[in-house]
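Deliverable D4.2, example record:
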Amino acid sequence: MSFLKKLFGGGDDGGAGGDKVLGTETYKDFTIRAIEMRAGGEFQLCGEISKFVGGEEKIHRFIRADRLTTADVASDMALRKGRQIVDEQGDRLFG
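Output generated by the structure prediction step:
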């Protein structure tokens, strides 16, 4: 059960402040955050895309199977993947 808690955000690895953000950027009115997700000794590609819609912040989290060796590489790849998702889906991401 502990594995499932960690997978779906129920673990306490993020501490009281929530998930550790590795990097952030604004792209086409969206905010993309690279989120630290450890997978053994590696980092799994994970991020969030958010945008204020009608005065409310909408958030979409994405997790990919890619395993990366360092936090810097994971951050770069997550931000790149976030831009790709925004380019492909735009506002439909929250629909």
